[in-house]
Amino acid sequence: QKELAESGGGLVQPGESLRLSCAASGFALNTYAVGWFRQAPGKEREGVSCIRNDGTITFYADSVKGRFTISRDYNTVYLQMNSLKPEDTAVYICAADVLCSTVSDRRAIWGRGTQVTVSS
């Protein structure tokens, strides 16, 4: 079975940092593009960033530019989140597909998500 699992979420104060990880089982993640998404209560899912299988980065959401960094090695895709703000609070989900242009499709491989809460 092709599965993704996120880890690294938690409760932090504004200004602190977290690093999320997205790991695959049942398939070779290094051949896939991987996107990070987030969904806050009552809001639609938002694309945060995407990285191609060759390691190039297609985009960052305007709301996270300069604060978040996506990266990867052969087995794992990371999202380094610095200077966190309360509005970053959401479930963060990774998804994998052949292309960043299709990674948001429902037919992509989706993880279950990890909760990030930024609060004083």
Description:
The chain is mainly β and 120 residues long. Helices cover 0% and strands 49% of the residues. Strands 2, 4, 5, 6, 9, 10 and 11 form a seven-stranded mixed beta sheet that branches. It has a four-stranded antiparallel beta sheet with strand order 1-3-8-7, with no helix packed on it. The radius of gyration is 13 Å and the shape is globular.
Key structural traits:
120 residues; mainly beta; globular
Report the sheet with the most strands, covering strand number, pairing sense and barrel closure: 7 strands, mixed
Q: From the alpha-carbon coordinates, what is the Rg to the nearest angstrom?
A: 13 Å
The total of helices stands at 0
Shape: globular
Question: What percent of residues are in strands?
Answer: over 45%
Mean pLDDT, rounded to whole units? 97
Outline the low-pLDDT stretches: none
Return the structural class.
mainly beta
The total count of strands amounts to 11
SSE string, helix = H, strand = E?
Answer: EEEEEEEEEEE
Helix content: under 10%
Between the first and last Cα atoms, what is the distance in angstroms?
40 Å
Q: Would you spell out the secondary-structure blueprint of this structure?
A:
Layout: E1 3-7, E2 10-12, E3 18-25, E4 33-39, E5 46-51, E6 57-60, E7 68-72, E8 76-81, E9 90-97, E10 109-110, E11 114-118
Parallel strand pairs: 2-11
Antiparallel strand pairs: 1-3, 3-8, 4-5, 4-9, 5-6, 7-8, 9-10, 9-11
